[in-house]
Amino acid sequence: MSGTVTTSRTAARLDELAAVGRPALVGYLPVGFPDVPRSIEAVSMMVDAGVDVVEVGVPYTDPVMDGPVIQRAAEAALAGGARVRDVLAVVEAVADRSGGKIPALVMSYYNPVLRYGVEAFARDLAAAGGAGMITPDLIPDEAQEWSAAADEHALDKVYLVAPSSTPDRLRLTAQASRGFVYAASTMGVTGAREAVGQRAEELVAHTRAAGARHVCVGLGVSTGAQAAEVGRFADGVIVGSALVRTLLTDDPWADRLDALGRVTGELAAGVARARTTGGDS
Amino acid sequence: MPEQPEQPVRDALTETLAHQVAEKLADVQGPYFGQFGGRYVPEALIAALDELETEFRKAQGDPAFAAELSRLHRDYTGRPSPVTEVPRFAAHIADADGDGTAPVRVFLKREDLNHTGSHKINNVLGQALLVKRMGKTRVIAETGAGQHGVATATAAALLGLECVVYMGEEDTRRQALNVARMELLGATVVPVSVGTRTLKDAINEALRDWVTNVDHTHYLLGTVTGPHPFPEMVREFHRIIGEEAREQVMERVGRLPDAVMACVGGGSNALGLFNAFLDDAEVSLYGFEAGGEGIESGRHAARFSGGAPGVLHGARSYLLQDDDGQTRPSHSVSAGLDYPSVGPAHSWLHDIGRATYEPVTDSEAMEAFRLLCRTEGIIPAIESAHALAGALRLGRRMVDEGRTDQVFLINLSGRGDKDVATAARWFGLLDEDTTEGDR
Ligand SMILES: Cc1ncc(COP(=O)(O)O)c(C=O)c1O
User: Fold this and answer.
1) For the domain A9-155+222-272, what is the CATH superfamily, name and number?
2) Distance, C-alpha A169 to centroid of its chain
3) Tell me, what DSSP letter sits at residue B337?
4) Which of A55, A124, A156, A201 is catalytic?
5) What are phi and psi of B73, to 5 degrees?
6) In terms of DSSP bridges, do strands B32-33 and B36-40 run parallel, antiparallel, or are they unpaired?
7) Which are the contacts of B22, defined by CB distance < 8 A and separation ≥ 6?
């Protein structure tokens, strides 16, 4: 054996769902917003309301890929004292809540992981039951250290592609990724949009042609209808800002949790009907 | 000499030179400078960075590009900038009263005399010409004090480009006149009200804009930081500073200077000057960072004294950060040095021992600021005053060690017009009413 990791928990989950005829709903929430215990309650609500894969965000001072909603939540989380290690508690909570069924991926900018120690982070993430990591500002070209650590601990490595990616870069990224490839639907940052870019469908097709087995689409999806539309051609639909937004109000916490559950449910219904005849209509 | 602090430095340098037989330190190409540099950015930007690098390399080999740039340097910027000897300033190295004769000859490279008032224009003109070649129509930039924003707005006006400048809300208030300058030049200034509301957050916003509009927009980054090819490219556009200064000093004193120094924010004026001397092992190089209120206070921008290697804004370099890798806010009386990271080439020069980096506090810089005003009739930018203060300190150290006949070359990276209000407040030249007035 060469020691190459061939299995992926996230990919296995996507395959299971594909077998029953639907894409996955991938839901993002940052750790520590509004505080660590309540971020665990929020993630648990999302799990109960029907997400298939959880993305746990590490709040960071300089989130260049994020729009105002996620920026505000991250800023509040940091102001509230959220630490990088807190992400491990949330990952564990996802595993507990779902009986190990739902993969939890960490989404982190690189510097917090670099500072923690790349190998130490991979080790601790695996020990907490995490499935892997999504790296918005780490491209495969710079990821030797993370890639080695992820292989060592059998973690997924989810890199991004964008509408601007050349065929060469799609191939490179597809080859380097494990779990799925994250296709950014438009050129831009996270945040709800009226329409998800038309280039998304093309990008998914090109990424598959470049060798990716699983491609999930993120950026801009906020409604059940959009989830159904994107779920027609993607293995998974990634939603962040639309979920985070439900928690950013001044309403009592219980009401915010309810709102989160409602939006999650609406999105889950969207992906559930994505591939039925007639699609969204 | 009982101890020779120079020795380990020389050894490290010799080793590095041995490892890079084919390459001079001055010509190292990105993406990496030792373990620093790289491209830690979203994939969405990679195509644009590749395009930029290709266009830059093409331009480097194109005599027409060089000719156009030198025409602008000469006719528009006013290059070559002179070198001025400052004996009355230098006399203060021997004693604080400046009564004796100067034990050190001090020369200033006068980037302050460039059009728009600082070295920033060198890089801006180079990149703006590349923008025209790439067929892009819009430029965006970040700015702290406003110098780079003004230079970018200037080049955009000259070449007919749309220009948007991101500036921390805090800085738009502190530098209201520079905001007006940019607007007079036709640029749109966008105040950034997230995060710390200063330069670092202006860069974040510029990167978000770039990701969104990259098909017709160029990010005209203002210093030797950021993802490859910026650190190398911006160095190349500033190397003219050192090339001119080397000849000018040779002409005046018949030999190379003993010590070459500059202030280091992102590091572009320093690298532009250092570059011409990197491969002359007998020339010592000194970079002076903002020590703010002192390293112990935690309120500074001294990446080499109070930071550690990490990744910010696309490059691996020394960085002010906490135990979680969160960026720590920087502090300096000078907005141009108030940045938590530094160009990767400086981190490399630091680690191989080729250049020495020391912090200079706000008050040291302001003392040197006043000294140059009064002894030589030159009002420096507060950024540049950090280099002047460092030179005074270094000169005194050398006098103590009995070293004589030293020649110093200092980059006077900018003029102090933009800093008059800050300096007037610092020295209590404004009455309370006026001070309150700019709320
Ligand atoms: C006059 C002057 N000097 C120095 C700097 C610092 O930049 P760098 O370190 O890139 O030269 C600035 C930046 O605004 C500046 O305006």
Assistant:
1) Aldolase class I (3.20.20.70)
2) 21
3) G
4) A55
5) -55, -45
6) antiparallel
7) none
Q: Which of B230, B253, B277 is the last residue of a domain?
A: B230
- The total of structural domains in chain B comes to 2
Same domain, B109 and B124: no
B318 and B424 within one domain: yes
In a shared domain, residues B342 and B430: yes
Q: What is the pLDDT of residue B436?
A: 39
Chain A residues whose beta carbon lies within 8 Å of the beta carbon of residue B214: 164, 187
Domain spans of chain A, in order of start: 9-155+222-272
Count residue pairs from A and B with Cβ separation < 8 A. 114
Nearest residue to B36 (alpha-carbon basis) of B348, B272, B319: B348
Is B364 catalytic? The answer is: no
| Closest-CA distance of chain A to residue B311, Å | 5
In this prediction, residue A7 carries a pLDDT of 87
**Contact (CB<8Å) A64/B207:** yes
Could you tell me the residue range of the domain that residue B141 belongs to?
33-76+119-230
- Has residue A20 got a pLDDT over 50? yes
Is a pLDDT exceeding 60 seen at residue A221?
Answer: yes
Chain B residues whose CB is inside 8 A of the A163 CB are: 44
Indicate if ipTM > 0.90.
Answer: yes
pTM of the model: 0.94
Residue with tokens 């103590």: B400
| DSSP H helices in B225-380 | 230-253, 268-274, 303-306, 344-351, 362-376
Residue whose CA is closest, atom 13 of ligand 1?
Answer: B336
The domain that contains B48 carries what CATH number? 3.40.50.1100
Give per-10-residue mean pLDDT for chain B (439 aa): 43 52 86 98 96 97 98 98 97 78 91 98 98 97 94 98 96 88 98 90 96 96 98 98 98 98 98 98 98 96 97 98 97 94 98 98 98 98 98 95 93 95 93 47
B319: nearest CA partner in chain A? A111
Q: Give the distance from residue A226's alpha carbon to the nearest chain B alpha carbon, in angstroms.
A: 21
CA of B270 to the centre of ligand 1 (A): 9
- Quick one: closest CA in B to A167, which residue? B47
Q: Virtual CA dihedral for B97, B99, B104, B107, nearest 10 degrees?
A: 80
Note whether residue B200 is domain-resident.
Answer: yes
Q: What tens digit of pLDDT does each residue of A150-197 get?
A: 999 999 999 999 999 999 999 999 999 999 999 999 888 988 777 777
* B312 and B401 inside one domain: yes
| Predicted local distance difference test score (pLDDT) of residue A206 | 98
